[in-house]
Amino acid sequence: MKKKRIRIVFLTIGLLAMLLAAGCGRRSKESLENELAYRQLGINKMNEGDYEGAVEMFQNALDQSLAVIEDLEIDICYYKAVAQYKGGDVEGAFATYNALIEYDKKNADALYLRGTLYLQEGDSENALKDYEGALEQDTRNIALYNKIAENLNGAGLTEDAGEILNQALAVEERDAADYREKGYTYYLLGQYDSARTYLDRAIEQKDTEAVFYLAKVCEAQGDTEEANQLYETYVESHSDDTETLNALGLARLSEGSYDQALTFFQKALEQESPVNEQELRRNEIIALEYLQDFAQAKEKMETYLADYPDDEAAVREYEFLQSR
Hints:
Largest sheet: none
Low-confidence stretches: 1-14, 16-24
CATH topology of the largest domain: Serine Threonine Protein Phosphatase 5, Tetratricopeptide repeat
Structural class: mainly alpha
Shape: globular
Number of strands: 0
Oligomer: single chain
Strand content: under 5%
């Protein structure tokens, strides 16, 4: 295992050298097709929980680029870093983000992601430095301020989160997306009336994303009926957003609306190759159990375990379903 980690780090350092030599090669149509194929294989392996295999596929994809660095290669690096981290290779994930930042020191996305990795590892000092660096490179991105604040709140750094949100309020709005994100900033600050004002302004400008945030505001204010109506409206135009559908399903589970939760999970599973398929399938089974449809839950658990045999909690749950 140690040798493989060393190899992964070496390959990432090699990637840095390749990045610095960008433009030296000429990629053929065949190599591009191979790169895209390896990328998809990597994504598939991530969905299966095979993170080591995913890292290998992403590296194979990068090897096809022949030193041509474009958005595709950067995208693959992001996937690779996530697979490395989820597979337990924290050092490798840092090395990949370091390579991206060395290639482009103004890469706000890479700085944000490395900062988040620092935060997850308990290094708040370096996390804050990277977050500040990301915001310096993307000063008008209100969504970035919000994401950073959410992460900091999640880590218990509420004072730092509040400072970031107050910085976001100082950004001037220029379009519907800005009004939507500013509305969400106020939501995170708990200032719901101001949040509604900005979100309504965004919705007036046909920003459908703002509908989702307005639903969250309604929930926070205890207006469950209006929140559910807004969620339904949002889903009608965002049926391919499987992560949001999963979040909505979990929210409905927590409040006891099991039929609606099941609808959200199944609507997400109708999409082609959802990135969170395993979680969605598991949650679908949970919803069926709450609805006491044990026969269907047992049937779906059998196919789930055929695809994810290493899920020990699911194995135990299957034993319960067999007794029903």
